[in-house]
């Protein structure tokens, strides 16, 4: 991941929900926006979990007040990178390395 805005959402076994805003400046492990002088811009609307899936609804502004770490969401095709694993992460410093399944999908988030 290079120059990517990253949102990580989940539910721990005790029911605690987490949502964090990250940024990757180069192909490497992303860093928390707030640790780099940025802001937490993703807002969680809903999250649920079954034995086989976690589903989350979340959003952020198209253009945030964090120009250092957030890319604007522009009209047209956007590339979304997704990832999931069998268990909740135990080490957020190595979160991307813990995901077993990843992929990329191109979607239109804002009509041109």
Automatic annotation (TrEMBL):
PROSITE patterns: DOMON (PS50836). One of its GO terms (molecular function) is dopamine beta-monooxygenase activity. It comes from the Eukaryota. Pfam families: DOMON. Transmembrane segments: none annotated. GO terms for biological process: dopamine catabolic process; norepinephrine biosynthetic process; octopamine biosynthetic process. GO terms for cellular component: extracellular space; secretory granule membrane. Residues 1-85 form the DOMON domain. This is DOMON domain-containing protein.
């Amino acid at each position: 991941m290079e120059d990517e805005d990253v949102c990580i959402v989940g539910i721990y076994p005790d029911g605690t929900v987490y949502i964090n805003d990250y940024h990757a400046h180069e192909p490497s492990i992303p860093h928390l926006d707030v640790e780099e002088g940025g802001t937490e811009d993703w807002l969680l609307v809903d999250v649920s979990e079954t034995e086989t899936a976690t589903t989350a609804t979340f959003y952020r502004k198209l253009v945030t007040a964090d120009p250092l770490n957030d890319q604007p969401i522009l009209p047209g095709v956007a590339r979304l990178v997704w990832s999931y694993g069998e268990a909740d992460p135990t080490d957020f410093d190595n979160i991307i390395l813990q995901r077993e399944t990843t992929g990329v999908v191109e979607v239109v988030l804002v009509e041109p």
